[in-house]
Input
Amino acid sequence: MKNEAEIRKQISIIEQQLKKKPKSANLLHDLGIGHYLLGEFSDSIKYLQKAVDLAPKKVAFLFNLGNAFNENDQPDLAIDIYLRALDQNPNHIPSLNNLADCYEAVSQFDKAHELFHYLTRINGENALSHFNLGNFFLRQNQHIEAAKCYEEAIKRDETFADAYHNIAWILHQAKADEEAMEYVRKGLNADPNHDEILGLRKKISDPKTR
Output
């Protein structure tokens, strides 16, 4: 990612271009993204909203505006924007993913679960869809269902170290440390420097760290 100085330089260039083309949706969008990258979400929303007003059917603009609202701790507004993006493209995977996250953030768990599950159907060969559904189950303390999802993720991507870690963690919580260590080993084969897996291995191996 560009450093702050580079981003601010790019913002300055866009601002100069906007003086000549104040109604350019693309320039307003790019300016909003610049502020987003700097964590200046209120400014990001201001410019992204202007871009969306000029190009209300552009999915990328709507998606990024939704992201800005979400990062600005306004998940309800983000939900509205993601739904508008999905009106334009019902199977826009990033909007579906982030909409599910927002539904969970506002405690609409049934809707979140429905969307996470739906993503495993329309994007089933993507390991991340199964992993995200597993994480949802894990946050709901449904460990068995979570583990099944992580296994599905591994079937699609045998190098998915985070999935190995989460299964190992679930097994460790169930005091099945021998089985947990098997997943630790598989995870480290996929990513020998995975900090969380290394930490879990130490915790399992050394009772003093438990």
